Amino acid sequence: MHLDELADFAAEVRKEQQESKHCIRVCMAAGCQSSGAAAVLDGLKGQVDDDANVHVKGVGCMGLCAAGPLVEIESLEASSKTASSKTLYQKVTADDAEAIVDSLDAEPVERLRCSTDIPFFAWQKKVVLENSGIIDPEEIKEYIAADGYLGLVTALTELTPADVLREIKASGLRGRGGGGYLTGLKWSTVAKMPPGQKYVICNSDEGDPGAFMDRAVLESDPHRVLEGMVLAGYAVGADHGFVYIRAEYPLAIERLKKAIQQATRQGLLGKNICETRLSFDIEIRLGAGAFVCGEETALMASIEGSRGQPRPRPPYPAAYGLFGQPTLINNVETLANVPSIIRHGGDWFAAMGTERSKGTKVFALAGRIQNTGLIEVPMGITLRDIIETIGGGVPDGKTFKAVQTGGPSGGCIPEQFLDLPVDYDTLRDVGSIMGSGGMIVMDQSSSMVEVARYFMEFCMDESCGKCVPCRAGTDQMYHLLDKIVKEKATSRDLALLEELCDMVSATSLCGLGQTAPNPVLSTLRYFRQEYEEKLQDLAVAGSGQADLARADSSASETEETK
Amino acid sequence: MMQQNRITVATTWLDGCSGCHMSLLDIDDRLFLLAEKVDFVYSPLVDAKQLPESVDVGIIEGSVSTDEDLHKAIEFRKRCKFLISLGDCAVSGNVPSMRNLFKLDDVLDRAYRENVQVNPQIPRDGVPKLLEKVQPLHGVVDVDLFVQGCPPSAEVIWNVLSELVAGRTPDPTKLTRFGA
Amino acid sequence: MKGPGTASSVRVVTLKINDHDVSARESESILEVARENGIRIPSLCQMDGLSIAGACRLCMVELKGSSRLLAGCATRVAEGMEVLTNTERLRKYRRMIVELLLAERNHVCSVCVSNGRCELQDLAFECGVDHVRFPYRSAVYQVDASHDWYRVDHNRCVLCLRCVRVCDEIEGAHTWDAMGRGINCQVVTDLKRPWGESDSCTGCGKCVQICPTGALVKHGTSAGEMEKDVHFLPYLSRMRHWE
User: Fold this and answer.
1) Closest CA of chain B from C120, distance in Å
2) Does residue B102 fall inside a structural domain?
3) Nearest-CA neighbor of A168 among A268, A239, A235, A237?
4) A459: helix, strand or coil
5) What's the complex ipTM?
6) Which of A550, A313, A468, A67 is nearest to C68 (CA)?
7) What SS3 string covers A25-66?
8) Which of A305, A285, A289, A308 is nearest to A207 (CA)?
């Protein structure tokens, strides 16, 4: 497919789309599906029947999961051929289908309406999620109509791999999986490795509790990730890609499979893409539910068919990766940014965000917050804007206590830092990390020691068991935390816990163990009092007399020997 | 030797085999040297029946397995300025702690019912109550010095005691180990 | 993992270990070079002739001017490196790692067949572990005595996975592997069939010889009687890599 062919195809689809006066979009992402979106879609289709004026389709995540199932109506203005108006309905049931269809050419159904002027929608800036909730993720033509694959075809026909690399570097994009490593640097390292078999891996093993950014992207706009992977393959000289995705994401897997088939059929994937010399295949590999397989060396071991355990680095995957070959591993969201960067240029991307953190970031808002759901905001926005303005603050008149970012590797950020800008470095400075984008809000009723225990239990369960500090250390730390929660611990237990935190983070083999103490360390840093309140007095015996006794007895003995 | 400057030492055995005390006796003729400088004010090896209010050095053999062991450990800690955990049972729980892998009731059943032919019954009167889990000494009280070994050799015990007598804090870590 | 380098590819670097100047081939690990120069770094999972696991974390070393620790077994030397192997911080961490191992399973030295010939015991001694501050987990582990000649006692296993590697890399049988995760990890034969029923086990006994503790032992041994001999390994490993 050449550029003009792609443009013609896109124009054709757009024309087709404008033939129907009303477009009804039903969110069919996992969140809304779990609250009955499939029945809503069926109900609406049944009501519309074969009215050519109305087009009903399932789309990806619209973001405001708390109000699901969500249905959006886009209607062409009577006076114009292009301008349209949008109406969003929330908590829709199948029984509402009739009312919604009846209202199409009349007044909207007020009782179901969800305002789109609220900050939750107005304050967002969508790059990765630009098509999410708008296009049907199971139709490649909808992605193409939204300028999909334009970046790829442009790159293949008009740019060299070095040009692509240059744009990625210029964009300042950093890894969205948590580490924040410069994507351009990673790509160019793999590109510089001698020619030969290389691989591109899309890390879709999203596993942080409360995080569902990658799932939403894959469910809502899978072609975007595929396009990013092919572009990466072109830039680094790889001809084979793997999507490593957790089996707990069946819908994402299904849509990804469909997307791969469709892209291959359109000649956008497979042999001689767009009749150029580039060939790139993508295979899906399912993770079997081990959190540690999100760690890149464990992930590769898992793809190779071995036990999913990390190995020491270096050598890094860029030099010695999958099957011993140079390998580029990027997270879903990172790759999903790539098509937009190639389409609009690296400078466009770099204009968003802060000095050292460019672009936008997708966050999954969860916990004690009004608007739970998925948002995409420019880097550098304050936590307060995210939580209070976009997220609608803490519900039920409770007060905010802390926000947990970065999942089990992250930390809890208290009220005093809410006005800090969200970027990689600032979050690290206050003892947390950006992580993959999970944000769990806690109110006054949350016990921070219990929060720390929860995450430690998670790490203990997910430790692969290979290295001693993580395997045995997380177990001991969990039990010490449990003892503190149950008010059976003493100051000595707390001291031992802190020693363990230090040792486990310094000596563990991979990121899981190295960061497992972070939730404890950050809650100790800001909420130490909560730990101390739970401590018991030292037992009757001993109680710090040991040193005194030693000094006393040595003194008397010294006298005695003279 | 001035009588009032002699060190007072108290020893006791908790759940163990008394092998560590035997090893203490194995210092043989050096017992006489020890006797010049140390008063054993309370011990299974001497006649005194009362642990004095204040003792310089307490030495405990065996793990903490019964409520009586626990009581003794606490009393020793209260009254002894310097407390030594002697031997693997006291230091790590050792053989007595192997019952921790089982439920206490199962252990009692195995010992007093399943393998008994005549009048099987679990003794309750006049015997100390077993704790649910066996603990090393430092699991229940603070300990100042650990002397590993099963049992620690007479040499190690002699070294520890003579260092104390000389007014130094002993360091047996280079002389003995677990299972020695 | 590593075969003998060809003459043309060998480059020699100089570095400092504990302020001693030493020279080394670029392909060597910090641990190897330290050993060559008589500098002892405690280690458990590493074994000459087997691939690198980097699992026990005892051989962690410091680089001057950096707070990040490196595993001595898995890190290659580099020109101008200044390695410290025995700082107070490292000693503290090593002690804790050994304590964690002792608390993890049921290492009752006094009645163990490997008493006095056990690497874990030696490490505890070397690292000054005179008691374990962590509560003993006292979890129940199986003993599999189904094999005609050998026995595996999971109570004593430290999960160094040397048995897994020697069986796979030297004997080529891959009878052993690890199952489960985290604290529930354990070594298994033939996808957790009893050892005696293993189809793949050749009975060579290499796993028994290189097991650092009393986890893999011969039948008919009593406390302290299990003698092991690992001298075959470097020789076999050399012969295997002789292309």
Assistant:
1) 10
2) no
3) A235
4) helix
5) 0.94
6) A313
7) EEECCHHHHHCCHHHHHHHHHHHHCCCCCEEEEEECCCCCHH
8) A289
From chain A, pick out residues whose CB is under 8 angstroms from the CB of B2.
Answer: 560
User: CB-CB: which of C69, C71, C100 is closest to A472?
Assistant: C100
Residues A430 and A481 in one domain: no
Split at pLDDT 50, 70, 90, the class of A543 is: very low
Within 8 A of A517 by CB-CB distance, chain C residues are none
- The answer to whether position A164 is within a domain reads yes
CA-based nearest residue to A59, from A21, A17, A95, A101: A17
Name the β-bridge partners of A280: A270
CATH code: domain of residue B160 = 3.40.50.700
* pLDDT by position in tens, chain B (length 180): 444 578 999 999 999 999 999 999 999 999 999 999 999 999 999 998 899 999 999 999 999 999 999 999 999 999 999 999 999 999 999 999 999 999 999 999 999 999 899 989 999 899 999 999 999 999 999 999 999 999 999 999 999 999 999 999 999 999 999 999
pLDDT at C69 over 90: yes
Beta bridge partners, A174, equal A182
Q: What is the pLDDT of residue A105?
A: 83
Looking up residue C70, the CATH number of its domain turns out to be 3.10.20.740
- Count of domains for chain A: 4
pLDDT tens-digit readout, B40-79: 999 999 998 899 999 999 999 999 999 999 999 999 999 9
Asked if pLDDT for residue A547 goes beyond 60, the answer is no
Name which residue leads in pLDDT, A279 or A553: A279
- The distance of A316 to chain C (nearest Cα, Å) reads 12
The parent domain of residue C116 ranges over 91-240
pTM for this prediction:
0.93
Chain C residues within an 8 Å CB radius of A466 = 53, 55, 159, 161, 185
Q: Which residues of C touch A (CB under 8 A)?
A: 52-58, 60, 69, 71, 74-75, 89, 92-93, 96-97, 100-101, 103-104, 133-135, 137, 158-159, 161, 177-178, 180-185
Tell me which residue range forms the domain holding A61.
Answer: 14-116
Residue B96: its pLDDT value, please? 97
- Nearest CA distance, A127 vs chain C (angstrom): 36
Shared domain check, C229 and C150: yes
Q: Do C135 and A479 touch (CB under 8 A)?
A: yes
Residues C42 and C140 in one domain: no
Contacts of A561 in chain B (CB under 8 A): 165-167
In chain B, how many domains are there?
1
Cβ of residue C110 closer than 8 Å to a chain B Cβ: yes
Whether A556 maps to a domain, the answer reads no
- Using a CB–CB cutoff of 8 Å, tell me whether C143 touches chain B: no
Q: Domain range holding B156?
A: 3-97+130-174
CB C19 within 8 A of CB C4: no
| Inside any domain, residue B25 | yes
- To the nearest whole Å, the CA of A526 is away from the closest chain B CA by 30
Looking at the complex, does the CB of residue C235 fall below 8 Å from at least one CB of chain B? no
d(CA A39, CA A519): 41
Give chain B positions within 8 Å (CB) of C106.
Answer: 98, 101
Q: What is the residue-wise DSSP string for chain B?
A: --GGGPEEEEEEE-BS-SHHHHHHHTTTTHHHHHHHHEEEEE-TTSS--S--S-EEEEEEESBEEEHHHHHHHHHHHHHEEEEEEESHHHHH-TGGGGGGGS-HHHHHHIIIIIT--SS-----TTSPPEEEEEE-GGGTS--SEEE--SSPPHHHHHHHHHHHHTT----GGGT--TT-
Judge: A542–B56 Cβ closer than 8 Å, yes or no.
no
Q: What does the angle CA B108 – CA B111 – CA B114 come to, to the nearest 5 degrees?
A: 100
Tokens of A351: 């204009």
Question: Is the Cα dihedral A164, A165, A167, A172 positive or negative?
Answer: positive
